[in-house]
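User: Assemble these into one structure.

Assistant: Restating your components, then the assembled model:
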Amino acid sequence: MSHDFGGLRAVNNYDLEIEGGQIRGLIGPNGAGKTTIFNLITGIYKPTEGEIILGGKRITGLQPHRVASMGLGRTFQNLQLWRHMTVHEHVKMARYSKITYGLIGAFFGTPKRNREEEEIDKKAYALLEMMGIHHLADQIVINLPYGDQRRVEMARALAMDPKILLLDEPTAGMNPEELIQMMAIIRQVHKELGLAIFLIEHRLKVVMELCEIIQTLDFGRVIAEGTPEEIQNNPKVIDAYLGREALD
Amino acid sequence: MKTLKGKIRNTFTGIPLLGWLIGALMAVVLEHFFGDVLSDILGLPKIPVLFGFVIMLKKPLLIPGALGYVLLTYLIPVGVIAKVSAPVANRLAEKFFDLSLTLTVLLHLMFIYAILHLWSDVSAYRVLTLKLTLIAIMVTLSLNVVNGYMGEFSCSHPGFMALGAYAASTVTVVLFVNDKLFGPALLTPVLGPFMFPIALIIGGCVAALGALAIAVPSFRTRGDYLAIISLAFMFIVKSMIENLEVVGGPRGLSNQPDVANLPTVFMWTVACIWIINNFVRSTLGKALNAVRDDEMAANSMTVDTRRTKIIAFLFAAFWAGVAGGLFAHVLRYVNPGTFGLQKLAEVLAMVYFGGLNSVYGSIVGAVSLSLLGEALRPLEIFKWIFIPLLLILVMIFRPTGLIAFKEFNVKNLLKPKKRN
C-alpha cells in the first residue's frame, strides 16, 4: 500500500504479512513513516493505494472503531490515556464493542447489564493482574508513574481480545529497569495469549531481542527485511540508521 | 477553634442519611404545627418562606427574629433529632439494606417527599419555588451530560426546553382543554393526569429530534463549532415559535391543564436522576468521558465515537424537553421569550457552579442557584452582581465547579454509618 500527504508520498509500496503468533518489528529513523503505517493499518488514515486484509477480510477504509473491534489492538507512541478515568475504567472501556445490553440496559440498569458489567469487571481485573498493576485499579490514570501508564495502555489494548497487537514504541521514555520489565511483559503476553505482535521501536536492543523478522523503513519505503542478524549486517540499514551508532 | 470544629464533626459522624431525614421531617412537622405561633413570638409578620433570607434583606430590623426562627425550627431540631435518632436510624437502615437496595431507596425517597411536601405546604410560593427547583435539577443534569461528561459546549438547552414545553402543551391543550386557539377538548379532562406522562415524552422526543438537526452537521467537527451552531439553534427555535401563530406566537400559550402537581414533578425528577446516573455509570456512558479526554484513543479502543456523541446529545435533549414540558405545566403558561439567553446563562451557571461530570454537582448547583436567586430577590438588580461574583469566585478557586468528577454512588450514600 501507499499513502500521500498532499504531494508527499509518506509511505511507498509498503507490504507486510503477519502470521498468527509472530512478532514482527519495524525500525527506521525519525520521520520514516512508521507511525503513519500504524495509522493506515488501524484505519485512522485511508491509504491512497492498496489494501489491508485482516483474517481474510478486507478492512481498508473502515472506521477505526470497526477495525479495532475486528481484532486489532494498539498502543500509542505518546501515551493516549483518558486523563479523568481510573485504570480499571480504561480497561473496561476497551470492551465497548462486546457489550450487548444496549441503551435500555444502560438507562435502566437491567439485570443483563449488571451481569455483563460484572463480567467485564472480572476480565479487566485479570488483565490488570497480568500486567502487575491490579493494586492501582482505582487510581486516576494521570497520577501513575510513566511505566505504569504504559502498562495500563497495554492492558487496555489487550482487553479488546485482539488477534494482532500493534505496539508503537512501547519502551519510549523508559529507564533501563522499566525497559526490561516491559520486554518481559511483551514476551509474556505473546506466550500466554499467543497473539501476533507488530512493534515499532527506536531502541534496537528491544527489537533485536524480541522480533523474529524486522523491517527497516526509510523515507516511506522498506529498505531491508530479515532476521535480526541479517538486519544488523545489512549495509543499507547501517547506512540509513545504524551508521551513527556504529561509529560510536 | 479547631477543637470546636472537631467536636462538632465528631458529634455528627455516625449519623446515616436516614437519621438526617428523620430530623428534617420532624423539623418540618414542627414548623407545620407551631410555625405560626413561633413567628408570632419572635415578632415576625408570618412564617419566613425561604429560611428567612427574604425577610432579612427586606427588613434588617427583623434579622434577629428570622435567625432565631431558622435556628429554632430547622437547625436545632434537625441536629438534635438526627443525633438522638442515629442508633435507631442506623439499625433501620441496616435492616433495609440487608433486605434490598431498591426498598432502601424507596424508603429514603418517601422520606424526602414527605419532607418536601410538608415544607412546601406552608405557602403556595414555596410549592412553586420547589417545583421550579426540581425542574432546574433536570435541566442542569441533562446539560451536564453534554457539557460535563462529553466535554462539548452546547448552548441549545433553552431551545430544547422550548420545543418540549410547546410540544407537551399542545398535546395536553388540544386533548383536554376547551381553548380559544385549538377549539374544544377532544377527550375528557379526567384522563389528563394519565396522559400527562405521554405528553411529556412526546415533548422530549420533539426536543431530541431538534437535537438531531444540530448533531448531524456539527459532530463532524469539535469544540467551538458546536457552541456556535447550538446557539444559533436556540435563536432559531425562539423566533420560529414567535412566528407560529398556531401556538400563540409571541403572546405565548396558556391554559395548560393543572396536572403538574408536586408528586408528579418529584417523580419525574427522580426518574431523570436515576436514568441519567445509570447511564453515566455504565461502560456505554463512560465512553462519553473517553471521547472527551481523547477521541482518537477511544476510537482505537472500539468505541464508536460518533454514535456515542449523537446518542448522548439526543438523550440530553430529551430530558431538557421533558423538563420544558413540566415547566410549561407548572406555570400553566409559556411564551418564547422565556427560553432565551437569560435561561441559557442560568442553566450554564448551574452546571459550572455545581461541578462538571457529576450528578451531585448538578443537584447542588441547581438547588443552590435556584434558591439563591429566590432568596436574593429583594436585592433586585444587585442580585445580578452578587450571583455572577459568586460564580467568578468558584471558577477561581475550583475551576471545574464545587463537586466535580464525583460519582453518585447510591449505595455509599444510603448505607448505615458505623461509629469509629
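Strands of chain A lie at 3-5, 8-11, 23-27, 53-54, 57-58, 72-74, 164-168, 196-200, 213-218, 221-226.
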